Amino acid sequence: MEKKGSSKMNIAIIHPDLGIGGAERLIVDAAMELASLGHKVHIFTSHHDKNRCFEETLSGVFDITVYGAFLPRHIFYRLHAVCAYLRCMFVALCLLFMWPSFDVILADQVSVVVPILKLKKSAKVVFYCHFPDLLLAQRTTILRRIYRKPIDFIEEITTGMADLILVNSRFTASTFASTFKNLDACGIKPAVLYPAVNVDQFEKPDAIKLNFLSINRFERKKNIELAISAFAMVHAHEVHDHQGVNMNDVSLTVAGKFLQFFNFNDEHFGIVPLEAMAAYKPVIACNSGGPVETVKHGVTGFLCDPSPREFASAMSNFIQDPHMSEKMGQDARQHVAESFSTKIFGQHLNRYLVDIARGKKE
């Protein structure tokens, strides 16, 4: 790493809506870590509600400027994607014409701003892709498919125009290659920058009875039924006969305090398993997607096929060995601190931005 004083940069970040979601958490972490390394950071967004945001956005550590809040988010509850594109393009145009040059501009989520930002010849443009949007959009009718066709085309073309593309996991990188086939054929490969958690916000818990926690949004794709079915099998002794164990002391919580975490869906990355491990809690997760890269099977938790019997078997391991949860929890905390802390995230992001600013495209 270069001496600190030789790599100070003026960095702009464009994000659609600075609320309190996972993507916003990543952007706030990026801004905080880059600022702590001596860079001047400025976030541009179309929405920032000071009553519903991460507290760091009010700290003054980095600047925030809002443009385009007057533009609609939808038109009669339709055309959300088009409105998001227009709002982000307006933010990008304001940055282009109203602000001096930046060394690096980091664009998040919406790639349509990339060609606009490329008009700022003095700046390198980095795009962070959480997951290809065209795979998240519904195409249940012919009209929806027609509507999405130009949007999907624009997404691929504009994404490929960035000087550097970052994704949140190797899983997303492989999906990126299989989705944006033209970019992959041209040799455009994204680099992986894992999101992070602030491990200092989690304290070691007091000893409590064994409780399995499933924390998800209440929607079908989160497959909450898997947790309930698996727990029912455990209580019915269908996997192991838990002799000598008072099963009344073993419970399943579908929301609440961190105890034992489940992750059921095929996550692109999955920030909550990291938060659980940072809170000294081992994780039981599906053996697919991002958790494969964050959960160390048999060390910080268990990776299972998405069946009730597989999950029930993993749950039984903790019931049979009362000390396993504590031991795995300690290992989980150390694993996150060493590989997925905000400090590590900041160091990796800084290296990517410093290198691209100097023309060292990976």
Question: What is this structure's SSE topology?
Answer:
Layout: E1 10-15, H1 22-36, E2 40-45, E3 63-66, H2 80-98, E4 104-108, H3 114-117, E5 124-129, H4 133-136, H5 142-159, E6 164-167, H6 170-179, H7 181-185, E7 191-192, E8 211-214, H8 224-235, E9 251-253, E10 261-263, H9 271-278, E11 283-286, H10 291-294, E12 301-304, H11 308-320, H12 324-339, H13 342-357
Parallel strand pairs: 1-2, 1-4, 2-3, 4-5, 5-6, 6-7, 8-9, 8-10, 10-11, 11-12
Put the structure in a nutshell.
The protein is of the alpha/beta class and about 350 residues long. The protein has helices at about 20-35, 80-100, 115, 135, 140-160, 170-180, 180-185, 225-235, 270-280, 290-295, 310-320, 325-340, 340-355; strands at about 10-15, 40-45, 65, 105-110, 125-130, 165, 190, 210-215, 250-255, 260-265, 285, 300-305.
Index terms:
single chain, 362 residues, alpha/beta, Rossmann fold, 2 domains, seven-stranded parallel beta sheet, five-stranded parallel beta sheet, 12 strands, disordered N terminus
